[in-house]
Design goal:
alpha+beta, Phosphorylase Kinase, domain 1, 3-stranded antiparallel sheet, about 35% helix
């Protein structure tokens, strides 16, 4: 009989008993972040539940999968091999653990990733949409991020607001489930990304170093339009010729 895959409530319960639920010694000593009601604070989507585990001086994002994805372990292994030999500034250190968390006596995989303190791109925009200087800074960060990926001939393949964290010094990408690295050339993609950021004709065959192009242009031009709006909101701060340089 196939093993029943855990649901969000299963994970919510398990992470509260880290010592017996996790296989990783560091996570076993950790404590899950709680809500004001004393329940595990979780970011849940269609494919995973993500928790913050505080382990002494280090904190981690622990991603627990809500369904079994074929080939997931191999893909994460290829991504890990690539990042081990080619440091990607805009990625976050992670470990894919096939035997990661125990639910009702069975082991399931998880991703352990360094916790990044930053704002999601959507939250950053809500906070700064009238601030030309801040929008200009994030545009420059996004340009550097995309140049880094292009120069390494890799693609995130799901560029969207929830997977881009904005920090003071740079951006960070999270969620590498569908990522492309050169060792995957010729393979189909495992997922098609957030529908609102992808070309409507994208299929599993569209998987390579150029997969991010469409979503990158959407994000880039959206930021440029916000910068124009910020100029309009603060006309006194606009110098002659600024509009031509935007």
């Amino acid at each position: 009989m196939p093993v029943r895959w855990p649901n969000p409530l299963d994970y919510d319960e398990a992470v509260q008993f880290a010592e017996v639920s996790f296989n990783d010694p560091e996570l076993q000593r950790g404590e899950v972040e709680l809500t004001p009601l004393g329940l595990p604070k979780v970011a849940s989507g269609n494919f995973a539940s993500v928790y913050r585990m505080d382990c002494g001086l280090k904190s981690y994002a622990v991603k627990c999968f809500l369904r079994n994805v074929s080939g997931q372990s191999r893909r994460y292994s290829l991504i890990s091999d690539f990042t081990a030999t080619s440091r990607v500034e805009h990625m976050v250190y992670f470990e894919y653990q096939q035997k990661g968390i125990k639910i009702e006596g069975d082991w399931f995989p998880l991703v352990k990733m360094d916790w990044v303190d930053g704002l999601g791109l959507d939250h950053f925009i809500r906070k700064n949409w009238t601030n030309k200087a801040q929008i200009s800074r994030v545009i420059s960060q996004f340009e550097n991020l995309m140049l880094d990926l292009k120069n390494r001939r890799i693609a995130h393949c799901d560029l969207q607001h929830g997977n881009i964290l904005v920090k003071n010094d740079s951006m960070r990408l999270v969620d590498y489930d569908g990522m492309f690295v050169p060792a995957m050339a010729g393979e189909p993609s495992a997922e098609l990304g957030h529908a609102n950021y992808q070309h409507r004709d994208r299929s599993e065959r569209d998987f390579g170093p150029g997969t991010d192009n469409f979503s990158a242009w959407i994000i880039y031009f959206s930021l440029l339009f916000l910068k124009l709006g910020a100029c309009a909101k603060n006309p006194g701060a606009v110098r002659p010729g600024d509009m031509l340089r935007i």
